[in-house]
Design goal:
Chain A: This is Thiamine ABC transporter ATP-binding protein. Chain A: Pfam families: ABC_tran (PF00005), CbiQ (PF02361). The structure holds two protein chains of two kinds. Chain A is an alpha/beta fold. Chain A is built from 26 helices and 20 strands. Chain A is globular, with a radius of gyration of 30 Å. The radius of gyration of chain B is 18 Å and the shape is globular. Classes of the chains: A alpha/beta, B mainly alpha.
Chain lengths: 790, 208
């Protein structure tokens, strides 16, 4: 079904694209089945399926029905090994899907792992480069593809500064630049707000109209897509197709629709029926007050929202709404006692205020869990134990009465509470399972239950319904209604208006920040590993990274070889004189170099303390003495350490990791799989740093905090490291799928951005050689040369 | 439903790296960089603690060695220890390292210490003794590198240099070896390693 002209118009001037696209690809499955290596049951079995070239098909079904597995198989990213099983055949036209490289493009749901490269242009080019498309053609395709998805941003724009919807459109552009005949979308909008959903949907439809490619899309929420597809196929867990037909046939009132609803599929126009909301008992006593509150995403960060006044009463539900970037989640974290207010106050009143401290942020984690519970958007952030049962008991077991060291609950109370929640949320059969291994819906139910276990008087939830099927949605809404009736106050950050209505929530709307462009999402440290803009434009910024590294290495040789203050001082002086070449001033340099200076001072002190004593004694510390001789040795050690460290700052400030990787792969001939794989991993660094902070808050909300013995604290820290690694590995797995689906990993590829050597590079290497030689000569001439291996 | 059918073309677990191995290895190394970064604030407090006998600062050096062992235990491919330690070193030098570019050479040598141990077991054994040996190997190589090759501690007496190497070996054994082994098992329990050769690490025998 073609999109209406009106909708096309909304995507703004989609051109008659000049792409040379492959023919649309047909899909055929014959008795196809697959079992993953780490599972005992197959994800799909006995699947028979025919999709015509150019057809648009929506794939639905309950979670665990193997929808994603089918998409991965078609994208050729499922790998067979000893532990996997497969049967039947899966064909793209007449070619086995595992060999259909370049015919297929795949987009997954997590926007962060759909982006491979740090710059917009490079990211769009990535797939085409892997397919060895000539660079001149790639350049034209990049422009056309960005245009087709309506992204009008500079090619050099950092991808980390894009919003979720923009990242997904960028991923789509990268797919289009490969010219695939089949486009696979795995819940492409599950992590986006309603505006982002439409933005991505319209870009997809426009691109398909332009290219005529076949579409296979997996979605939970069918509203946005149903009228734009030709056919809907519903898969059965562990089996094949449960039903298929046109959207009109399947979604019209009748037994099929009912069956879909029963299995949790969000059929268009359906909202779970919860029955009437119990009439409100009238507002209870006020529990929490925010006055003139300003909130910031990090401790000491800039305020994202100001002048907020809020009064939360027992038994009351609030829904916090607002555009992305308006500070909704930040407000929730601040009310939850996880972030300090920048200005204004958050204070507990009435029942919640027992104890002398009224400010939730000042409470110990153990005092917080029994009073205010925060449920994070990602359930895994809040898992702190090895089994579901332990997870549920953790909160109440660690909860302390305010201002005391007395446990809030007795063992009997804890056992009763855990048993009640397990049966209430149908988690009983999973009591011994590791929380991380549960399904998406089970994880959501568990994460809410773990927070409820400590009976908080206020429950705060961040986007609790994101990515959930209709059954989990319904259960969640019913559970929260019970909590409301029991007098718990609920604050939900959500775009889901049905959900807010189901709770009878009052709206609290956040103002859209004035300068909000949608292009600056939550990113505190955008370019930790990116060259500074000023550095990139400087003289050294234009030099090949390998030349810079060679120059620094040449200048470092005498420093490693000799322990003397003359060669070190010379290198330090020349480095300081070279700062303007890197676009650095002394203050900006010191902002980066002070830890290095500190380290050098520590080194100098250590040496002065233990160095071989000679000359006058300056300070006597018993076993150690500081003498003129040891001070001289210390100064030499410190200066040498500083000289070794600071030339690298010039390289760091002026080198983009992408350029370094390009040079390493093209010029140094290192295997590009490893170089670009490492580069892609590094791009996740900023994300992981943010995730570390989020984990800290999510765990505090569970009662993990800076309390207890040293061993308990160590365990808490190690737990947080483990949590970070789990998230890192999950993201890496998805990123690897993205890269592989974009054809990465073969022996040859082309490069849109050629790494070249020029005259400047020769000058820089020559300067490094000169400096190394001069440093050696000066030290020898002045008689301070002191070979460390002597 | 259980399946007994064998695949038509069985592929054996190979020693060659897949994309997912490379990217996860890189991310382990990068996460290690984040962990270093998170410890940085506390790091200099520890410096003061060790001022009484400076070589004892090597007791914490294992913190800078764990990527090698953790990476190899998780990825289980030849070169994993080397790659992870090298990339971690590169990340730390990009974030601003007090050792400048020499940290790359150090990373290479420390990684080699662990790599040789895994190679000695033909990349077939990833149990506790091998992990401890690999951690100790990384510490030994790292210690020798600091004390005798780069000679960062020029002023130390021969006895202190030896003490430094011994401390670093112990630190490597405990922090890089033991903690990485426990960490790998804990990760395997979460199902996060499903795509990797170490997916069953949590249920494998500890000593054999």
């Amino acid at each position: 079904m073609p999109a209406t002209t009106q909708e096309l118009g909304a995507v703004s001037g989609v051109p008659e694209t000049p792409h040379r696209h492959a023919q649309a690809v047909a899909v055929s499955a014959k008795n196809w089945g697959w079992r993953h290596a780490d599972r005992t049951d197959p994800a799909l079995w006995g699947l028979d399926l025919e999709i015509r070239a150019g057809e648009r098909v929506l794939l639905a079904g309950p979670s665990g029905a193997g929808k994603s597995t089918l998409l991965y198989a078609l994208a050729g990213v499922l790998e067979e090994d000893d532990d996997t099983y497969s049967t039947g055949e899966l064909l793209l036209d007449s070619i086995p899907a595992s060999r259909g490289r370049g015919m297929v493009g795949l987009m997954q749901q997590d926007p962060e792992t759909q982006v491979v490269q740090a710059r917009v242009g490079d990211d769009v080019a990535f797939g085409a480069e892997n397919l060895s498309v000539p660079p001149e053609q790639i350049a034209a395709r990049v422009i056309a593809a960005l245009d087709a998805v309506g992204l009008h941003i500079p090619l050099e724009h950092p991808t980390s500064a894009l919003s979720g919807g923009q990242k997904q459109r960028l991923a789509l552009a990268g797919i289009l630049a490969m010219g695939p005949g089949l486009v696979l979308l795995d819940e492409p909008t599950a992590n986006l707000d309603p505006a982002g959903v439409l933005e991505v949907r319209d870009a997809v439809l426009a691109a398909l109209d332009a290219t005529g490619a076949t579409l296979l899309i997996v979605e939970h929420r069918l509203d946005a897509w149903a009228e734009h597809v030709d056919r809907v196929i519903v898969l059965e867990p562990g089996g094949g197709i449960s039903c298929e037909g046109t959207p009109e046939e399947l979604f019209a009132p009748g037994p099929v629709r009912e069956r879909l609803i029963a299995s949790g599929v969000w059929v268009p126009g359906y909202t779970p029926d919860l029955g009437p909301l119990a009439s409100a008992p009238g507002p209870g006593a006020t529990l929490l007050e925010a006055d003139g509150l300003s909130v910031a995403r990090t401790r000491g960060g800039a305020a994202v929202a100001t002048g907020l006044d809020l009064r939360i009463a027992a038994g009351e539900a609030w829904c916090v709404r607002g555009a992305n970037g308006s500070g909704k989640s930040t407000l929730a974290l601040t009310l939850g006692g996880l972030l300090p207010p920048v200005a204004g106050t958050v204070a507990a009143t009435g029942d919640l205020a027992s104890g002398s401290e009224k400010r939730p942020y000042r409470w110990r984690a153990a005092e917080l869990v029994g009073r205010i519970g925060s449920v994070f958007q990602e359930p895994e952030h809040q898992f702190v134990t090895n089994t579901v049962a332990e997870e549920l008991a953790y909160g109440p077991r660690h909860a302390l009465a305010p201002g005391t060291r007395d446990p809030l609950f007795t063992e009997e109370q804890i056992d009763a509470r855990v048993a009640m929640l397990m049966s209430r949320l149908r988690l009983g059969h999973l009591a011994d399972a590791n929380p991380f291994t549960l399904s998406g819906g089970e994880k959501r139910r568990l994460s809410v239950a773990t927070v409820l276990a400590a009976e908080p008087q206020i429950l705060i939830l961040d986007e609790p319904t994101f990515g959930q099927d209709a059954n989990t949605w319904r259960e969640l809404a019913l559970l929260l209604r019970e909590e409301l009736a029991a007098g718990t106050a609920i604050i939900a950050v959500t775009h889901d208006t049905d959900f807010a209505r189901a709770l009878g929530a009052e709206e609290f709307v956040m103002e859209t920040p004035p300068a909000h462009s949608g292009a600056q999402p939550h990113r505190n440290s955008p370019g930790l590993l990116e060259a500074d803009v000023r550095g990139g434009a400087s003289f050294l910024g234009q030099v090949n990274p390998l030349a810079k590294l060679a120059a620094v290495a040449l200048a470092t040789i005498p420093l490693v070889a000799s322990m003397d203050w003359v060669s070190s001082t010379l290198v330090v002086l020349v480095t300081l004189l070279a700062l303007p070449l890197a676009g650095l001033t002394i203050p900006r340099f010191m902002a980066r170099a002070w830890p290095l200076l500190l380290a050098a001072l520590f080194g100098a002190w250590g040496t002065a303390l233990v160095g071989i004593d000679s000359g006058a004694v300056l300070l006597d510390l018993g076993i150690f003495t500081i003498t003129q001789g040891s001070v001289a040795a210390g100064a030499a050690t410190g200066m040498r350490a500083f000289a070794v460290a600071i030339p690298a700052v010039l390289v760091l400030f002026t080198t983009d990791p992408t350029d370094l990787a390009n040079a390493l792969a093209q010029k140094a001939r290192l295997p590009h799989r490893f170089v670009l794989g490492a580069l892609a991993g590094m791009r996740l660094l900023g994300l992981l740093i943010e995730e570390w902070a989020t984990l800290g808050m999510a765990r505090r909300a569970r009662g993990v905090g800076s309390h207890g013995s040293a061993a308990a604290r160590l365990r808490a820290n190690l737990g947080q490291i483990l949590g970070l690694l789990v998230q890192a590995i999950r993201r890496a797995s998805r990123l690897a799928v993205t890269m592989e689906a974009k054809g990465f990993g073969t022996t040859e590829r082309t490069w849109l951005r050629a790494s070249v050597y020029g005259r400047r590079d020769l000058v820089v290497v020559g300067a490094g050689l000169l400096l190394g030689t001069a440093a050696t000569w000066a030290a020898v001439a002045l008689g301070t040369w002191n070979l460390v291996w002597g | 439903m259980s399946i007994t059918k064998k695949p038509a073309v069985p592929k054996t677990a190979t020693t060659s790296w897949r994309i997912v191995d490379i990217v996860i290895a890189a991310v382990i190394a990068v996460s290690s960089g984040v962990i270093f970064w998170a410890w940085n604030s506390a790091h200099h407090l520890f410096d003061i603690m060790f001022l009484a006998f400076p070589p004892s600062s090597a007791l914490l050096a294992g913190m800078w060695l764990f990527p090698a062992v953790l990476g190899a235990l998780i990825i289980r491919k030849p070169g994993a220890a080397l790659f992870c330690e090298l990339v971690a070193a590169m990340v730390s030098s990009l974030m601003g390292s007090e050792f400048g570019l020499t940290v790359l050479a150090s990373g290479l040598i420390q990684g080699l210490g662990a790599e040789l141990v895994f190679a000695a077991f033909a990349y077939r054994k990833f149990n506790l003794p091998v992990a401890l040996l690999a951690g100790a190997g990384a510490g030994l190589f790292g210690g020798i590198n600091d004390a005798y090759i780069f000679r960062w501690y020029h002023a130390y007496t021969p006895g202190m240099l030896l003490a430094y190497v011994v401390f670093m070996t112990i630190s490597g054994l405990v922090i890089a070896g033991l903690l990485s082994f426990l960490g790998t098992r804990a990760l395997a329990k979460t199902g996060a390693l499903g795509a990797l050769a170490s997916r069953r690490a949590a249920t494998e025998p500890i000593l054999r």
